[in-house]
Design brief:
The chain has one domain (22-91). The protein has helices at 2-8, 18-55, 61-91. The protein is 79% helix and 0% strand.
Length: 96
C-alpha cells in the first residue's frame, strides 16, 4: 500500500522548506522559553520580597497582612505561569 501511495503522490517537484520552518520554530521556541523563564523568575523574586517583608513586619498586623497577600498573589501568579507554559508547550510544537 505504501508503494502504491508513493507512486501516486510525486513530491519531487515541490520545494524543500523544512530548513526555514525549523529555524523559525527554534527561534520562536527560544523566545517563548525566555519569556516564561523571566516571568517565573519575577514571580519567585516577589515571593522572596514578600517573605522579607513578612519577617521585617515586627508584628504590625497591616504589614503582616500585606506581606502575606503579596506572597499569595506571587504564588498564584507562578501557578498561572506554569499552567500557561504547559498549555503553550502542548499546543506549539518544539517549545520543550
Amino acid at each position: 500500500m505504501t508503494r502504491l501511495l508513493a507512486s501516486i503522490i510525486d513530491t519531487s517537484g515541490l520545494p524543500n522548506t523544512t530548513t526555514t520552518t525549523t529555524n523559525s520554530t527554534a527561534f520562536e521556541a527560544n523566545v517563548i522559553n525566555l519569556v516564561f523563564a523571566i516571568a517565573a523568575s519575577v514571580a519567585l523574586l516577589m515571593v522572596v520580597i514578600g517573605g522579607f517583608r513578612y519577617i521585617t513586619a515586627r508584628g504590625d498586623p497591616n504589614a503582616t497582612a500585606s506581606a502575606r497577600n503579596g506572597i499569595m498573589y506571587a504564588l498564584v501568579g507562578l501557578v498561572l505561569i506554569m499552567a500557561a507554559y504547559s498549555i503553550v508547550a502542548f499546543t506549539v510544537k518544539g517549545v520543550i
